[in-house]
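Researcher: I'm comparing several assemblies side by side, and this is the next one on my list. It has 538 residues spread over two chains. Same procedure as the others: predict the full complex and return the structure.
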Amino acid sequence: MEPTSAFQDPGGNAGALIPHLFRREFSKIVAVLCSLFGLEHIETAEDIAGETFLAALEIWPYKGVPPNPTAWLYAIAKNKARNHLRRDKLFLAKIVPALKQGVAGSGEMEIDLSEKNISDSQLQMLFAVCHPSLPAEGQICLALRTLCGFGIDEIATAFLTNKETINKRLFRAREKLRAERAAIEFPPEAELPKRLDTVLLTLYLLYNEGYYSESQDAVLREDLCAEAMRLTHQLTGNPSTDLPIVHALFALMCFHASRFPARKDRNGEIILYADQDEGLWDQGLIGRGAWHLHRASQGDTLSKYHLEAGIAYWHTIKTDSPEKWENILQLYNRLLTIAYSPIAALNRTFALSRARGKEEAIAAAEKLPLTDNPYYYTLLGELYRELDKDKALGHLQRAYALARTRSDKGVIEKAMQKMGK
Amino acid sequence: MDEYILIFRHEDGNKVASPEQIQVWMKQTMDWIGGIAAQNKFSSGTGLPFDGARVVHHKGVVTNGPFGEIKETIGGFIIVKADTVEEAVEFARGCPVLQGDGNTVEVRKIARGDGTH
């Protein structure tokens, strides 16, 4: 169901309220029902949550939004779950004997929608969804659908693909979880670090999906980031996952998110870091990030999230200084030794130019095996900008030819125009 | 692609450097390693602090540190990925340890453990 498009608000404010309520409460209801029924019945749980919102859409526009919408939704969800159990003989036969609690057959099943149980169920769902047997894209889709309550349409928009593809991914992911008999439970302590790695990577990718998405829907992009942050923050609230590495990831997200208001112009075009109005950076988020980075530094783990958070921290200081670029360079040096990526290699070379000069950076850039990467040529274009205009333009033209996205081409075009002047 | 170990040999491990000098070396070393890692050719590596070093001799005699009668010491190593020994040698040429007169970097291929070595 798609409440955002189907709902016609005759005059009240229910229209504005429901999409947000839907996302937030959908995932809570699904998590609680799933932990009750078992993960193999995830679709049933989603259907019940969906029907609950359909009821709200049918009733609220005429009778008005109830004073406590959440309590209203939970009451409906409980009723629908009980009715479903009574109605569906097959479900009854298969599930009821296995129910973890309550006497479902009598209709007196206990559905615990307390804050604590919701939070526990959601964290267990997070670990189930981030199952090592699933490909990353499957984990992210499932997380968006089940944990963040995104509609199929929205997920398709975020990934720049169609509903069928997303439905297929979700179907395959759920089948796989069934085949693996994945349980909704907190992983045993011995497995926790490894399982947590997968969870953190999925949250990191989910965040990046929002941050770097090519989707034109700015609200949706920020929502993806906000959801990744909400789930990561939730991990810091549980004693077993309140760990430095989790704080490091959260700090990284805070620092990046602080630039949201400044990184796109009115037409949705990317504003490069150097051209951003730092007055628009969210100082509250920067402060939160700093606090979590401090928490991250307790203990002796040094993850890629720590190093990326450190780099992001230095970027929250707009003023250039030798200290800033020296620190960024050293953080990239270390990051590359534990987690190589082409973009980190290119950013390291840019930091090198700031800390050690353009000549040294050009020499280092020429050794990078990234000659099919458009950003490699935008970097060379930047490094040659003041030294050799023709060379710089040549590199930018090469970058333009290799660029795959509209916004990348736009940025390169601007750089070429600037040089032409 | 093969792996090569680059072993830093210091001619005289007894030399004492100032904290400032050590910091400069650290930066140079990290820049050097970062440059290799940026090419996706870095595997692993570590420094080997002289503090707490012991040498176990024939018949179980243990002495403090690698110093004394043995002048040359190993200060650390890194393992790099390279197609040829020449490529590994190119990486070694940039090692800041070589700024010290008499210091050397030994380049050795890592046995693959596939039965061919």
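Model: For your comparison table: Residues 2-103 of chain B form a domain with the Alpha-Beta Plaits fold (CATH 3.30.70.1060).
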